[in-house]
Write a structure and sequence with these properties.
This protein is α/β, with parallel strands linked by helices. Helices cover about 45% and strands about 15% of the residues. The protein has 20 helices and twelve strands. It has helices spanning about 20-25, 30-40, 45-50, 55-60, 65, 80-90, 115-120, 140-155, 160-165, 175-185, 205-210, 215-230, 240-255, 270-285, 315-320, 345-350, 355-375, 390-410, 420-430, 435-450; strands at about 5, 70-75, 105-110, 130-135, 165-170, 185-190, 260-265, 285, 295, 300, 325-330, 380-385. The protein has a five-stranded mixed beta sheet, with helices on both faces. A five-stranded parallel beta sheet has the order 3-2-4-5-6, sandwiched between helices. Helix 6 packs parallel to helix 11 (about 205-210) and helix 6 runs antiparallel to helix 14.
Length: about 450
C-alpha cells in the first residue's frame, strides 16, 4: 500500500537562500542516531501501545453495541477531543451526520463548555438512542465533567439506565470515573497510564469514536506500525520524522519560531488542529531537563489552502523570516467536480472551463509553494496519495515521533504540561471545589488589588 511522503526540497540551500545546508545535517547525524536509539530504549507510551492488542480487542468487542445507537456523543477536551475530531473530519464525509446512506451513528464531539454550543448538540439528539462517551483520565477535568453531569442529568431525567447510555474512557485503576463505574456497573475503556492526552489518538480515546463512525481502526493502527518501522531507521536521510524534527530545530535556532501547517484539503484541515496541540503543549517549556530556565517552543499555526491565500499568504511571503510552512497535499480526491465551459468569449473565465476543482486547488498549492520559495521562505510538503485510514495512521505516528525527537533536541520533557496547571487550579478555586478555598481567596485578592485600566 502506498504511504504518505515527505518532500523537504524547499527546506534546503540553495533552493532557499537562507536554507539549511547538508553539512549542518551531517553535524547532527550521530546525535540523531543516539536520540532514535534512546527513544526506542525508553519506549514511551505512544510506541508501547502499538505492541499491545488488549486495547483494540476490547473496542472491537463493543462494536455491535456502539453502532446500534443513532448518536454517539464524545464528552472531552484537548487531547480527549482533538484526535477524535481529526479522525472524523478526515476519514468520514464532511456531511457525514447528514448523509442519507449513513449506516453508523451520528458523531458529535463536545469539546467546550460554551452553553450555546452544548445546547446545539443536545438539540440534535434523542437521549433514548444516544450513547455518551465521557473521556477523562483523571475524572477531574472541569469541562468534560461538567458536560458529563449534564448528560447524566438528561439520562436520569428520562428514566434511562446509565449502563446502557454511558461509557467511560479513563484511567484503568484510579480516578472518579473509575470509582463511579465500579459502583454503578458502567462500561469502561482504559487509557494507557503512560500515554498523555495529546499522544492518545491511537488509544481507546480516539479509536472508540472512530469505530462508532465506521472507520477502519485496524488499518489506522497498521499505518502507525508501518511508520514506526520507518522511523526506527538511524539514517537521518531515510527517517522522515527525525529529519523533520532536526530541520525545525535548526530553523528554530535561526529565529524561525512559528510552524505553519497548511492543508490544501478541507478533509485534512483539522489534522492541523491536532498537530497544534501536540507541538505546542509538548515543546513549549519554561525549564529544560537540567532545571535551567529556557522558555523554548515553536508556535504552531494552522491555515487552509486555498482559503488562507487570501488572508495569510501576504504575511508568509513578505513578512519576517520566522515561519516554516508545511503543506498537506492530497493527490487523489474522493470526488471531483469539472468546471463547465461557459463564457468562453471572456478570457478571464475561459481558461477555467474544462478543468477540475482538484486541478485548480493543487495548482494553487504549487503557486503558493513557488512564491514562498522565490521569497526565500522555507516550506515543505506532506503528500497523501489518497485519504484512507492507513495514511492517516502514518501521519499521526510520524508527528508523534517527530515531537519526541524535537523534545530531545531541545532537551526538554515533551510529555509533561506544567504550564496548564495554574489555570486549572484557578478554575477549581473560583468554582468552589473543596480544598481550594485558601487559593480562591488569594486569587480574588490579587485580582481586586490590580490597578484597573478598562475603556
Amino acid at each position: 500500500m502506498k504511504g504518505i511522503k515527505f518532500d523537504f526540497t524547499n527546506m534546503f540551500y540553495p533552493n532557499i537562500e537562507k536554507g539549511i545546508k547538508y553539512d549542518e545535517i551531517n553535524q547532527y547525524k550521530d546525535k540523531i542516531a543516539n536520540i532514535i536509539n534512546e527513544i526506542f530504549k525508553e519506549k514511551p507510551g505512544f510506541i508501547k501501545l502499538l505492541e499491545d492488542t488488549k486495547y483494540i480487542d476490547k473496542i472491537l468487542d463493543l462494536q455491535e453495541w456502539i453502532q446500534s445507537f443513532d448518536s454517539f456523543v464524545v464528552l472531552g477536551i484537548g487531547g480527549s477531543a482533538l484526535g477524535n475530531i481529526a479522525l472524523q473530519t478526515t476519514l468520514n464525509p464532511l456531511n457525514y451526520n447528514y448523509a442519507n446512506n449513513r449506516k453508523t451513528p451520528k458523531i458529535f464531539i463536545v469539546d467546550n463548555v460554551d452553553p450555546d454550543f452544548v445546547a446545539s448538540v443536545l438539540d440534535q439528539i434523542d437521549p433514548h438512542t444516544t450513547l455518551f462517551n465521557v473521556i477523562s483520565k483523571s475524572g477531574t477535568t472541569a469541562e468534560a465533567m461538567s458536560n458529563y453531569l449534564i448528560a447524566r442529568g438528561i439520562v436520569d431525567s428520562y428514566g434511562l439506565d446509565p449502563k446502557k447510555h454511558i461509557i467511560f474512557t479513563t484511567d484503568p485503576e484510579k480516578g472518579i470515573l473509575r470509582e463511579i463505574a465500579k459502583n454503578e456497573g458502567i462500561e469502561t475503556l482504559d487509557i494507557p497510564p503512560e500515554v498523555g492526552g495529546r499522544f492518545s489518538v491511537l488509544t481507546p480515546v480516539g479509536l472508540l469514536s472512530a469505530l462508532a463512525g465506521g472507520i477502519d481502526i485496524i488499518d489506522l493502527l497498521n499505518g502507525a506500525k508501518a511508520m514506526l518501522e520507518k522511523v526506527s531507521n538511524n539514517n537521518i536521510f531515510e527517517n522522515p520524522s527525525a529529519l523533520n524534527a532536526l530541520l525545525h530545530f535548526l530553523y528554530y535556532n535561526k529565529g524561525y519560531n512559528i510552524s505553519v501547517m497548511m492543508p490544501y484539503s478541507n478533509k485534512l484541515f483539522l489534522l492541523a488542529d491536532w498537530y497544534r496541540q501536540l507541538w505546542a503543549e509538548s515543546l513549549g517549556k519554561k525549564y529544560n531537563i537540567h532545571g535551567e530556565e529556557v522558555n523554548v517552543g515553536q508556535t504552531p499555526v494552522k491555515a487552509l489552502g486555498a482559503t488562507d491565500q487570501h488572508s495569510q499568504v501576504q504575511l508568509y511571503n513578505e513578512g519576517p523570516d520566522d515561519k516554516i510552512v508545511t503543506f498537506l497535499k492530497l493527490e487523489k480526491f474522493e470526488r471531483d467536480i469539472k468546471i463547465p465551459k461557459l463564457h468562453e468569449n471572456y478570457s478571464a473565465l475561459a481558461y477555467l472551463g474544462g478543468k477540475t476543482l482538484s486541478e485548480l486547488l493543487n495548482t494553487e498549492l504549487f503557486g503558493t509553494e513557488y512564491a514562498l520559495t522565490e521569497h526565500g521562505k522555507p516550506n515543505m510538503k506532506v503528500i497523501f496519495p489518497e485519504i484512507n485510514a492507513f495514511n492517516v495512521g502514518q501521519f499521526f505516528f510520524a508527528y508523534e515521533f517527530q515531537t519526541a525527537v524535537m523534545g530531545k533536541l531541545l532537551e526538554i520533557d515533551a510529555y509533561d504540561q506544567p504550564g496548564v496547571e495554574l489555570g486549572k487550579k484557578v478554575t477549581y478555586a473560583l468554582m468552589g471545589r473543596e480544598g481550594y478555598e485558601e487559593f480562591a481567596n488569594e486569587v480574588k485578592n490579587k485580582n481586586e488589588t490590580k490597578e484597573k485600566f478598562i475603556i
